[in-house]
């Protein structure tokens, strides 16, 4: 302090120069110390937010009084595993299931050959046509599309158009109208379609023989069927696990209120979902400013799903702590590799990205929660592969 030798300034002068800074620094240190003491002393207390100070008074004698609040992870009264019931879900694979899957594979590799001149359109045929559209009620410009091709009976084409084309021959025309209900800012309208058919083709399926199997990299048909069975079984076991997870959580959460959850977790979940929505829209080339998105309305639509996800996580985290679930680092690595495969990214690159973005702990926790689901299923009498 100017005018005083080091260490010789009166306390009152020091207080007038630095009192506010010292008091502020002391407040921060004391609040942090109290926060850690609370967490250590209260067994099972898991803070979700930092301690928010509402009032702190430091007395002349060095004592202090502090009032604050923080959100903590709730502790639920959960049913015991013996009280839960696993629904029966069939996963056995029949020969008919394998045949059905192989028929799909053959259909994907089928060739198309022109139908006879006197053939009429039926489900499974490829139709080649031109489409003209005219808005007869409401607003809209006429349109014309040439060289349209689709398989009759498959999804993706309006049912009214499909029905109008059943029984048609090459060279014929059909006309059909379709009414569209109002959606959002789009008013109701009616469109008349003029359909001019140029050609019909039949699907020529390849024979299911050893040559077909070898073309797919298998020694013979039996090896191909064995592989198809393995894939179906794996898929069904995965689907069963997902359905068991939901059924067990529904029973555990039966008496819990999804609307009484820590606000910070719900807000974080909503922010992540909204950011994901904006990112996906940008990837699709959409301009959300031009679309004038109603963000509060969108957030309200997302909130029920976010709340359900938060409740699921809290319940599973409580079970993980209760049962002492720990995941070895090798299992975490396997989980990360599976996540990388799902996203189509090389495992090493995915691991580096997670580390760079500070998301490794999140993946470790996800692996722990996954292991908790497996343990829950085992404790209720189910099998997990």
Fraction of residues in helices?
40-55%
Q: What is the number of helical segments per DSSP (H or I, 4+ residues)?
A: 11
Quaternary structure type? single chain
Radius of gyration using CA atoms only: 33 Å
Number of domains: 4
CATH topology of the largest domain: Chitinase A, domain 3
Shape: elongated
Query: CATH superfamily of the largest domain, please?
Result: Transcription elongation factor, GreA/GreB, C-terminal domain
Task: Explain how this protein is built.
The chain has helices at residues 11-41, 95-108, 159-165, 210-215, 221-252, 263-283, 288-291, 295-323, 329-343, 347-356, 360-379; strands at residues 52-58, 64-69, 111-114, 126-137, 143-151, 173-180, 189-204. It is an alpha+beta fold and 385 residues long. Strands 3, 4, 5, 6 and 7 form a five-stranded antiparallel β-sheet that branches. Strands 1-2 form a two-stranded antiparallel sheet. Helix 2 crosses helix 5 (221-252). The protein starts with 10 loop residues before the first helix and ends in a 6-residue tail after the last helix. The mean pLDDT is 88.
Features:
385 residues, Chitinase A, domain 3, 4 domains, five-stranded antiparallel β-sheet, two-stranded antiparallel sheet, elongated
């Amino acid at each position: 302090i100017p005018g005083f030798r080091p260490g010789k300034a009166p306390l009152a002068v020091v207080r007038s120069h630095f009192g506010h800074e010292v008091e502020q620094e002391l407040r921060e240190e004391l609040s942090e110390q109290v926060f850690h003491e609370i967490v250590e002393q209260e067994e099972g207390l898991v803070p979700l937010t930092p301690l928010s100070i509402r009032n702190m008074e430091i007395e002349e004698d060095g004592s202090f009084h502090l009032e604050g609040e923080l959100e903590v992870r709730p502790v639920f009264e959960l049913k015991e595993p013996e009280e839960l019931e696993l629904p029966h879900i069939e996963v056995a694979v029949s020969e008919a299931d394998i045949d059905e899957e192989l028929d799909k594979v053959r259909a994907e590799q089928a060739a198309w050959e022109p139908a006879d001149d006197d053939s009429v359109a039926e489900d499974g045929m490829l139709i080649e046509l031109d489409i003209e559209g005219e808005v007869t009620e409401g607003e809209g410009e006429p349109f014309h599309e040439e060289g349209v091709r689709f398989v009759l009976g498959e999804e993706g084409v309006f049912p009214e158009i499909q029905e109008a084309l059943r029984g048609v021959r090459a060279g014929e025309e059909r006309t059909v109208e379709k009414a569209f209900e109002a959606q959002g800012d789009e008013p109701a309208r009616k469109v008349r379609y003029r359909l001019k058919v140029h050609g019909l083709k039949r699907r020529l399926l390849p024979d299911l023989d050893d040559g077909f199997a070898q073309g797919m990299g298998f020694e013979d048909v039996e090896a191909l069927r064995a592989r198809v069975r393995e894939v179906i079984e794996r898929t069904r076991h995965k689907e069963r696990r997902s359905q068991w997870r939901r059924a067990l959580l529904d029973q555990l959460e039966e008496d819990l209120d999804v609307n009484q959850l820590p606000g910070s977790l719900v807000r974080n979940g909503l922010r992540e979902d909204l950011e994901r929505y904006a990112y996906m829209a940008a990837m699709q080339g959409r301009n959300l400013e031009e679309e004038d998105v109603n963000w509060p309305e969108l957030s309200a639509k997302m909130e029920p799903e976010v709340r359900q996800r938060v409740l699921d996580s809290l319940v599973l985290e409580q079970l993980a702590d209760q049962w002492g679930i720990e995941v070895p680092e090798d299992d975490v690595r396997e989980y990360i590799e599976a996540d990388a495969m799902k996203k189509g990214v090389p495992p090493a690159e995915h691991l580096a990205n997670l580390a760079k973005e500070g998301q490794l702990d999140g993946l470790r926790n996800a692996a722990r929660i996954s292991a908790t689901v497996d343990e829950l299923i085992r404790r209720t009498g189910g099998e997990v592969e």
